From TrEMBL:
Annotated keywords: GTP-binding, Magnesium, Metal-binding, Nucleotide-binding
Native species: Nothobranchius furzeri (Turquoise killifish)
SMART domains reported in the protein's UniProt record: ARF, SAR
GO MF assignments: GTP binding; GTPase activity; metal ion binding
Matches recorded under PROSITE patterns: ARF
Highest taxon, organism lineage: Eukaryota
GO biological process: non-motile cilium assembly; receptor localization to non-motile cilium
Binding site for GTP: G28, L29, D30, K31, A32, G33, K34, T35, G69, N125, K126, Q127, D128
GO CC aspect terms: ciliary membrane; non-motile cilium
PANTHER family: ADP RIBOSYLATION FACTOR LIKE GTPASE 13A, ADP-RIBOSYLATION FACTOR-LIKE PROTEIN 13B
Ranges in a coiled coil: none
Gene3D superfamilies, sorted: P-loop containing nucleotide triphosphate hydrolases (3.40.50.300)
Protein name: ADP-ribosylation factor-like 13A
Length: 247
């Protein structure tokens, strides 16, 4: 009876929790299994042309942004950083030849000001394959601990197989990883929302211009300072030589 009561209470409190909108950016090298992972998570299955996939997980309305992973399309990721509350980085655990490239891409991603500090889930995908690296090997080979410490991001690695998750609908590792990410986002939700609102208001170009303006100002200030020093040195020299030349 007591169990029933407490279950009812937790059920009622869950219902009363507000619905939270969360946007997650899904990135990684091409062929790592990003689209397959999203298909494993989103029951309805996304269409190929659509990069926005929406689903409801508990009290979260989640938008998964599927970004292309080829070197040419990685440039478009930066346009999506602003609106993301968290990141999913998908790695092919069997592709040892491209592990260095994956680490470099991950390192660069975590250095981005609009990404640093946001929670990140690493999906160590394709675990169904014989030669897949296990979680601990992936942590080492990607220097994961060092990278996330530098960017101060909460991080979790989930070994998974998107292909297997597509076949079974219980105990999906991709979904388990997403649940962790949502909990991590929830810990910092007001701050992350404030960041998203602020970064989304300012387009990338204006930020670039701002930076340029700032560096221009610094350049001008340095130039004025150097001119003053030069004038001072010249007047000192002329005084020393007994000349009275106005500068
Ligand atoms: P994306 O380019 O990162 O979106 O990668 P895709 O989702 O298109 O997957 C690339 C290839 O890897 C496809 O042929 C998938 O069938 C395959 N693939 C994706 N996930 C898995 C997995 O968990 N196991 C295996 N064996 N193959 C996978």
């Amino acid at each position: 009876m007591f169990n029933l009561m407490s279950n009812c209470c937790s059920w009622v409190s869950k219902i009363q929790e507000p619905i939270r909108k969360v946007t997650i950016l899904v990135v990684g090298l091409d062929k790592a299994g990003k689209t397959s992972s999203i298909r494993g998570i989103v029951d309805t299955g996304p269409t190929h042309s659509c990069i926005r996939n929406e689903l409801r997980v508990e009290n979260y309305l989640v938008t998964l942004l599927d970004a292309g992973g080829s070197p040419e399309s990685r440039g478009t990721w930066r346009e999506l950083y602003a609106e993301a509350h968290g990141i999913i980085f998908v790695v092919d655990s069997c592709d040892r030849q491209r592990m260095k490239e994956a680490r470099e891409v991950l390192a660069d991603l975590l250095k981005q000001p609009r990404v640093a500090g946001k929670p990140i889930l690493v999906l160590a995908n394709k675990q169904d394959k014989m030669n897949a690296l296990v979680g601990s090997e992936m942590i080492e080979i990607l220097s994961l601990e060092k990278l996330v410490n530098q960017s101060r991001s909460l991080c979790h690695i989930e070994p998974c197989s998107a292909l297997m998750d597509l076949r079974r609908w219980s105990d999906r590792k991709t979904l388990r990883g997403l649940r962790w990410l949502l909990r991590a986002v929830c810990l910092d939700y007001p701050e992350l929302c404030a960041r998203v609102a602020q970064d989304s208001r300012r387009p990338l170009e204006s930020r670039k211009r701002e930076k340029k303006g700032k560096s221009g100002k610094i350049h001008r200030k340095t130039k004025t300072y150097l001119d003053t020093c030069l004038n001072f040195a010249l007047s000192f020299l002329f005084c020393y030589l007994g000349l009275n030349v106005p500068i």
